Predict the 3D structure of the following.
Amino acid sequence: MRFSIYRYNPETDEKPYMKDYDVDVVEHDCHMVLDALLAIKNHMDDTLTFRRSCREGVCGSDGMNINGKNGLACTLSLDSMKEPVVIRPLPGLPVTRDLVVDMTQFYEQYDKVQPFLQNSDPLPAKERLQSPTDRAKLDGLYECILCACCTTSCPSFWWNPDKFVGPAGLLQAYRFIADSRDTEMDERLADLTDPFSVFRCRGIMNCVDVCPKGLNPTKAINHIKELMLEKSV
Amino acid sequence: MSIATQTFDAIIVGGGGAGLRASLELAQSGLKVAVVSKVFPTRSHTVSAQGGVNAALGNTDGSDDWRWHMYDTIMGSDFLGDQDAIEYMCKVAPETIYELEHMGLPFSRLDDGKIYQRAFGGQTRNFGRDLVHRTCCAADRTGHAMLHTLYQKNVQAKTKFLNEWFAIDLVKTDAGIAGVIALDIVSGEVVFLKARATILATGGAGRIFQSTTNAHINTGDGFGMALRAGLPLQDMEFWQFHPTGIAGAGVLITEGSRGEGGYLVNKDGERYMERYAPHLKDLSCRDVVARSTMIEIREGRGCGPKGEYTLLKLDHLGADVIDKRLPGIRELARTFAGVDPVKDPIPVIPTCHYIMGGIPTNINAQVVTLDRNGVDKPVEGVYAAGECACVSVHGANRLGANSLLDIVVFGRAAGLHVQQSVREGLGFREPTQSDLEAALAGLNRWNNNTKGESVDEIRVALQKVMQDDFGVFRTAENMQEGFKKLKALQERLQYAAIKDKSNCFNTTRIEALELDNLMATALATAYLANERTESRGAHARYDFPERDDQNWLKHSVYYADGRIAFRPINMAPREVDAIKLQAREQ
């Protein structure tokens, strides 16, 4: 099977280039895109550089652009892939080397939404109670793996990576707004009212299309906008 | 030679649950701390834990007792666990869980709003009498929920992170541990991180086996570091094989799937655990279920064209329960086994999952070694917590959902004790030039070797030896054969080489350094597994099928030079009577 892979090592390459590899996916027992990348690194070219960890779609290390669409290399099957399989780093972030991008801006946007529970009430001796209905409001939000597939597929983020929080960050913002145990909803909403943080979302929905966990950041963003409207009335 | 130095009160090596719980404790105390993690913290392997975390809250059943949890843990450990440490862990478990809830961990809930608790293997009430629901969970993504919550709280506490930095070696001085040598993966820069206290929280090493539920990053880095610094490892013969890894892919299917009512069947459709363990059945301890499954397969009752797996049946639970309680399992089974568990059973096989052994510590998470008289001696300036440590709360076999508990309880204990030690005047140890050079030796070897075998060749060979000769069932013959092969590989490793010598994000160099740690871990396992001539917990021998309390009721301890020693097991809990030696249900 033929793979065409983006290569760039800042120490040796003046500019990035695409390199082809023919992988015997049967001999190397490759099922997923990640298996093929590992086969290349282990048997053909040990300079090929990419991140990987859990290999089961929960750690979010191996987000990359595969045949034009962001996804996780470890959960995308080679079965129905069009050849050559074109693999590039996630778009919109600086490339560190090959398929490794510098995710600093992505993490900064995450930190910006204060992604931690805040509750100014005195601590109870046991757990805070939460009804199953209230808990269910966190489903589809807390499962985010911070792979950055969504945010780096978003044109609004490409234009304003320093000012637009992006879908992953906003999903987290709403995860805490929606948590019945969090008491800082008003503050959280107020922090997002500038023209960029939330309002650069144009509802393009690339984020929904690419999310490997099937989450829906656009819906979360719309909930945030609705709450802002409600609070301002 | 000069080396850049950064100075901290505490350095934590590893950004999984144990490391982040320790760092949170320390960052909140105002000490200057940094977490060194070879991956961004939420990529650590804690994220893959599924089923839950044990604490005797009694939410589902109305009542529970930490003493019952303690009893179960000791029974599960096959009496190799230290009773003082198990007592401590089970007793503080409820407050530790409430803390996590207060931090925001999105636990599943019961109708009354309390934390939902499910059944899990080996968890009973009234000292073994009935099954209990003790495992707190966030659906089947508890590790993910825990790791993200801890990371988020560290963001709030403004913890300093050195992400994508690789800790190469401890810097050892005559007085204790002075810190670590670490490599910034992005730039290739090598730095001495000097600290009053160094906390190892490097996780497991499942990648010594061919087939493992573990992530690629679980390479036993803390084990290699400890051994090279002259520190011991303990009970490294005890590897847990999880009964339900997806056949072929090795991906974990949580024991919680059996806790929710799933069960294992052989090719005749027989629910075989009823035959092996009539009382606890599919919710027996993992070592029991894994062995039973291997016997089914060996005796020709496995499923599939080659009869090499059994089936985990869940479809009778219905789509509602599966989607509510086991949504992640449904996703994994579809992706990696090509089956939807709502309709079809999942092909599973016992798969290497967890190391019960590790760096020996006391209940304050201080690393201990043995002095000349064989007496415990804490090593100044170094701690260990989580899977890389051996406190020992898991003994010869860990109970499911006790590992997420272990990491938060002892991560916290490490943080608390470091604070206390610093308050009481714990200072720095000053390394000599040769101390620093010793810690750089491994890196220099890889940088200097130009021609030789590749990392992957040796790694694949090592994994095959461990899989073939140190698996679920062991014999002297196999292990000695395996041992010889390992020694040969160890020799070859000295001459292996990497071609890529660049500095920027050189993952080949990292994999080479990891291979040194895999080798150190595999050798420790081989030495101690050969030595222990009995069957206990996860260490099962055909040639010595019985537990031998007369000779082997003791921890085994291994040093890098091949020396083996023993430590007594603690049978003296502080508050309650010791659990007396007895047989386990088989």
About this structure: The longest strand of chain B covers residues 190-200. DSSP finds 16 helices and 22 strands in chain B. Chain B has a mean pLDDT of 97. Residues 86 and 551 of chain B are 23 Å apart (CA to CA).
